[in-house]
Write a structure and sequence with these properties.
656 residues; alpha/beta; Immunoglobulin-like; TIM Barrel; 3 domains; 8-stranded parallel barrel; 12 helices; 30 strands; 22% strand; elongated; disordered C terminus
Length: 656
């Protein structure tokens, strides 16, 4: 082909350009990038790329021998900085890059920021691809608002797609999207999780970044298959009633030569000043949230995954690094805002608009913030002054709880406030409790490795940690491997240690997680008021001597209330007295020490009288036998009929 092969053509209207430049075009993926088109009876591909600092832009690829000059694009007359053109005879699968000559004379070979498919890394070119797919998840999409509602249970299984399972016999390769659609979906369904969360599935050049250094923001990684294969994976989850949350990274991007960094020879997507545009923690580059075209790019990208891939929510990574100009910076290494403060006003404005647009277009999804500071109102609506997220990760709970559980049980009585502190602020946000990938890397060890004591105690501690998590207010997230008691840190280039399931203690953890999920979703008191202070009541938070926590979880109906008691020591407690409601019968409906979980099988007495004996500020009390390193949950009512709950425990009736 020669230069005549590029024909003038545009998908962009004047309205598109105006919205793009105003930072208000949130469907840019329909107009920029490469698009299969028919123009005047000819099939081909329309290309459009934003490069305002370019002197010349051309399309180079496998179709022209990677020639940089034979297929130049035309710059628009309107000053938008968009270059475009139509090349006949090209089709799906065409491999290409943009050759950009900057106004400063520098030259660059760039992948397409809007490419919907990329070559398999380490190759770095974009691929022309359509997103046609006949979705078969209509039932899920119609009813998912209930599954994502704040008064419903949400138990999330976090997955790194490349290392959940690997084919050792095939050079240790990762499972494909199609293979995951069978095995991963079946596993998550069997364990009873309501949602799955994928660590970033967008195209990234360095596998060791776990997906957090993205170059292809509009494409699922080609390592595991095609875009349609990824759609099939999401659809497979939807068919069995499981929602899919995608990890999304608008906080930074890598400096790879084919990526967004200095895209047209200038700081286009990032700040030019390294005090604002360079991220010292990750050696990456920070988006310029004040540049309106960049806002259009990012919000379009968020909506793209909700629109084209039927994602049920986005977990927004590293929000804290976006909110503060001095994040991970020393004095003199950052630029204050216009008021002299440390808050990134442009990022705050961007996040608010992002959430308004996401919920406005898809009201039945959830936007979840990974935010580790005390920034106020992260999960409150923007009309109340909040950032507009639906939920926020409860990093304080995670840090305090893991710090407590690693303490030798002999000394835990000196650290009781560590385990109770989270309830002082549990209802300031809509919190999700995470035990994520970040807690099992960088020398921290597997969760099981951090538990003190002998083998039995370590497994009992792990079960107790999960039991406390699932009965604590908030939604839940467990990283893959947690369900089998992984014995070593997660490694992105290795499979989980599934062979552990030949051993009884690990079988017990798996059975426990499965029944804990069912218990959580069966008992309304554990989720109906997860974000309301009147859904929780301490019985006794101050028993540091015995290292026992006792509290009540409350549902909309009083008959659904649960009493939860956690014995955080390996010593059984006999006749442990607890203040309680008067004249009710109580049924143990869950016991983390059950033999089927590889517990000791320690059971409370078959009948315990509720006495008119003041305790814990109540006129009535009862005495219970508490299992070692165990949690028991009790439900009240003379007419309690156990259905699903009956499989959880030994059916012990307590009453007068």
């Amino acid at each position: 082909m020669n230069t005549i092969a590029v024909k003038p053509y545009s998908l962009l209207t004047e309205g598109d350009i105006h919205s793009f430049r105003a930072g208000k075009h949130f469907r840019l993926y329909e107009k920029l990038g490469s698009h299969l088109q028919e123009v005047e009876g000819e099939q081909g591909v329309y290309f459009a790329v934003w490069a305002p600092n370019a002197k010349r832009v051309g399309v180079m690829g496998d179709f022209n021998g990677w020639n940089k000059i034979t297929h130049p694009l035309n710059v628009r007359w309107d000053g938008s900085g968009i270059w475009e053109g139509f090349i006949p005879e090209l089709g799906e699968g065409t491999v290409y890059k943009y050759f950009i000559e900057s106004n400063d004379g520098s030259t660059h070979e760039k992948g397409d920021p809007f490419a919907q498919y990329w070559e398999v890394p380490p190759r770095t070119a974009s691929v022309v691809w359509g997103l046609d797919y006949k979705w078969k998840d209509k039932k899920w999409m119609k009813n998912r608002s209930k599954s994502n509602a704040l008064n419903q249970p949400m138990s999330v299984y976090e997955v790194h797609l490349g290392s959940w399972k690997r084919k050792l016999e095939e050079n240790n390769r990762s499972f494909s999207y199609k293979e995951l659609a069978k095995e991963l979906v079946a596993h998550v369904k069997e364990l009873g999780f309501t949602h799955v969360e994928f660590m970033p599935a967008m195209e990234h050049p360095f596998f060791g970044s776990w997906g957090y250094q993205i170059c292809g923001y509009f494409a699922p990684s080609s390592r595991y298959g095609t875009p349609q294969d990824f759609m099939q994976l999401i659809e497979a989850f939807h068919k069995v009633g499981i929602g899919v949350i995608l990890d999304w990274v608008p906080s930074h991007f890598p400096g790879d030569g084919h990526g967004l960094y200095r895209f047209d020879g200038s700081a286009l997507y990032e700040h030019a000043d390294p005090r604002q545009g360079y991220h010292p923690d990750w050696s990456s580059y920070i988006f310029n949230y004040g540049r309106l075209e960049v806002r259009s790019f990012l919000i379009s990208n968020a909506l793209f995954w909700l629109d084209k891939y039927h994602a049920d929510g986005l977990r927004v990574d590293a929000v804290a690094s976006m909110l503060y100009l001095d994040y991970s910076r020393k004095e003199g290494e950052w630029v204050p805002n216009i008021h002299g403060g440390r808050e990134n006003l442009e990022a705050i404005s961007f996040l608010k608009e992002l959430n308004e647009e996401a919920y406005g277009s898809f009201p039945d999804i959830q936007m979840i913030a990974e935010e580790s500071t005390s920034f106020p109102l992260v999960s409150k609506p923007t009309f109340l002054g909040g950032l507009g997220f639906g939920m926020k990760w409860m990093m304080g709970w995670m840090n305090d709880t893991l710090e407590y559980f690693k303490i030798d049980t002999f000394f835990r009585n000196h650290h009781h406030n560590t385990i109770t502190q989270s309830l002082t602020y549990a209802f300031t946000e809509n919190f999700m409790l995470p035990l994520s990938h970040d807690e099992v890397v960088h020398g921290k060890g597997a969760l099981l490795e951090r538990m003190p004591g002998d083998e039995w105690q370590r497994f009992a501690n792990l079960r107790l940690l999960y039991a406390y998590m699932f009965t604590h207010p908030g939604t839940k997230l467990l990283f893959m491997g947690s369900e089998i008691g992984q014995t070593s840190e997660w490694k992105h280039d290795e499979s989980l240690k599934w062979d552990l399931l030949q051993y009884a203690p690990h079988q017990g953890v798996l059975a426990f997680v499965k029944e804990l999920n069912e218990f959580y979703q069966t008992e309304k008191a554990l989720y109906e008021k997860s974000f309301e202070a009147n859904g929780f009541e301490w019985i006794d938070y101050g028993d540091s001597h015995n290292c026992v926590l006792s509290y009540i979880r409350k549902g909309e109906n009083e008959k659904d209330d649960l009493v939860v008691i956690c014995n955080l020591t390996p010593v059984p407690k006999q006749a442990y007295r607890l203040g309680i409601y008067p004249s009710e019968q109580w049924q143990e409906i869950f016991n983390s020490d059950d033999l089927k979980y590889w517990g000791s099988g320690y059971k409370t007495k078959s009948a315990v009288a509720v006495e008119e004996k003041p305790w814990n500020g109540r006129r009535h009390s009862m005495a219970l036998d508490l299992p070692p390193l165990g949690m028991i949950a009790l439900k009240k009512g003379n007419d309690l009929v156990l259905t699903n709950n009956s499989r959880f425990s030994s059916k012990v009736v307590l009453g007068s």
